[in-house]
Amino acid sequence: MLGRGTGVVVGTSSLAPDSIVVKDKVATMTLPGKRPGECSIIISAEVTLKTDPLEAANAQLAEALAKPMATLRAEHEAWWKDYWSKSFLRMHSADQQAEWLTAAYHVHLYTLACVNRGPFPASYGGGGLLIEGDARDGSKVEDWVQEVRFNFMPLYAANRLEMAKGLPDAFSRMVPFLEKQTQNVFGWDGIWVPETYAPWGMSSTLSITDDNAPENAAWFHSAERNVTYGRFSHFATHVGLIFTSGLEISHHYLAYYRYSGDEEYLRKQAYPFVRGVCEFICGLVRKEADGRYHLDPANALETWWQVRDPADTFDGIRAIFPQFIELSERYGKDARLRAKCQEVLAALPDHSIGKWHDDGRVDATVDAYAPAAGKHGFPNRINCENPALYRVYPFGLSGIGAPDYDRAVRTFVYRTTPLWWGWSMDAIWAARLGLKDQACVLLAEHARRFNTWPYGGWEVIHCRPVPRDNSFAPPFLDGGGCSATALQEILMQSHGGVIRVVPALSALWGGVFQLRAEGGFLVAADVTDGVPKLVEIRSLWGGKCRIENPWNGPCNVIKDKEAIFRSDQKTLEFDTVKDGIYLLEFADKPAASYQPQPLEERYSEARGYAAHGLPGRHD
């Protein structure tokens, strides 16, 4: 499809098959009746961008067959050893929920390692496994930005950056097509990222047609319905007017840089993409008589259709535009667009306040962020996302220590759809807000509802995996991504230039972990009853480290067994050298009194969880 394809070949070096028959999509290989007691069968799969996938798969198979089996096994084991050595996480709690969630975390990372290494991101629906053929709803080609990002959210802190880069790499390949599509559909320059897209960027959600009969007509309305921008004649009501997608993908481009420190990538790959998204958004918003820039109509995700000034899009603008402006100044480029972005930022409308109810009622007395400024043709809630909380995550405008912290917490408390589907990010938002009494509870409840497959896979809705009574048949990746990211955010956060250790961990949990922080740091901690015994920071690049004091009291920073810094301030700041290791200890309980215990393999005793198909090892 447009030069892209998948090829799979099967071969063996120990014996020749009697016959090989390929019919339609089924290949059958018949082995001889007399054959060795043991033989090796190798399966080669290749996904290609422009070349023949079968030719590529055959070449890969030939390369594998030329090696002794012992060499192939050694290479395989070395890859997995390296993969698992990049970070670690082992948590425990008296009720063993922590063990269960730790197991689910590793099942998800294992699944991603199996399916998410190719040139195209694995689909969120069935990317890990398909049962009884492909029985998914909707297009088997198109994917959703809101869903595929879940594959990548936990990869940064898990220190799997080579895989995390797969998302921006995929969108960078789409840029030429996206730029042309943006001109065709909207009539101005920039990059419009459609919410649903084919692997090369094509969208079928905004349709230019003269016959008034777009494909999937049940999802479409005429663009004459209050739409005053663009050239499209019809739009898909559920996703066609979502404009947060490009801002979210821009966030991933910039997040990869903050974790990797790759300046060449930032300049050559991230900056052009972010620039294109900002240019498109500047053409989309319109200055009205009040002197403010508005967007009307647009969707607040899939939840509120045809609204005014959707919160998720405008908070994305507030998060991404300043970063583009800073890069534009650094590189001395795009002065005109930079000035336009500054103008838009300065004239955004005030935040809309109030609680929106499912039935369309708005309670303006609730001092919480609203999902939008107003509604049009669809007053009631359609789906189950919480657009007003996107400022907390992924965009990081609100959270621990932010000036609007109390309002952000109220927005979380009054959210319209708490923990609704597998993609619900409730535990992530609770962690970003430092709600220690809720984050771990929500994380466990999320898994109880949606972690339903016996091997540890996730369901998108709360239903029994077998037998299935709906078309959401395969295990999904989005729930696993939400769970893994939430667990990381509970244990360590590093957005905004400050590292926070166990910012949202329950006092009932303990354990050890090592995760990667923005700015080039590996952060490890040993935790008991929700409080670190000690924290170790490995500086990968050197430079200044800023970390929130893990204790309510004096903290010592030790390097090479010598104290180099002591402070009881809320935020600690000290210089580091490349590859330097820094130990943080609570001065009242120094590390010298610390008695480390080796990690041991132990079997889970949570037999009750096993009965519900939850992950973990069971007797």
Secondary-structure map with pairings?
Layout: E1 5-11, E2 19-23, E3 26-30, E4 42-48, H1 53-65, H2 69-85, E5 88-93, H3 97-115, E6 143-144, H4 145-148, H5 161-164, H6 166-186, E7 196-197, E8 206-207, E9 220-222, E10 234-236, H7 245-260, H8 263-284, E11 286-287, E12 293-294, E13 298-300, E14 304-308, H9 311-331, H10 335-346, E15 355-356, E16 362-363, E17 374-375, H11 405-413, H12 426-432, H13 439-450, H14 478-491, E18 492-493, E19 500-501, E20 509-517, E21 521-528, E22 531-539, E23 543-548, E24 555-559, E25 562-567, E26 571-576, E27 581-586, H15 607-610
Antiparallel strand pairs: 1-4, 2-3, 5-20, 6-7, 8-10, 9-10, 11-12, 13-14, 14-17, 15-16, 18-19, 20-21, 21-22, 22-27, 23-26, 24-25, 24-27
Short description:
It contains 15 helices and 27 strands. It is of the alpha+beta class.
According to DSSP, the number of beta strands is 27
What helical percentage do the residues reach?
25-40%
Low-confidence regions: 463-471, 606-614
Report the radius of gyration as a whole number of Å: 26 Å
Separate helix tally: 15
Largest sheet: 7 strands, antiparallel
Secondary-structure-derived class: alpha+beta
Task: For the largest sheet, list the strands in their spatial order.
Answer: 5-20-21-22-27-24-25
Write down the overall geometry. globular
Mean pLDDT: 89
Q: How much of the residues is beta strand, in percent?
A: 15-25%
Distance between the termini: 48 Å
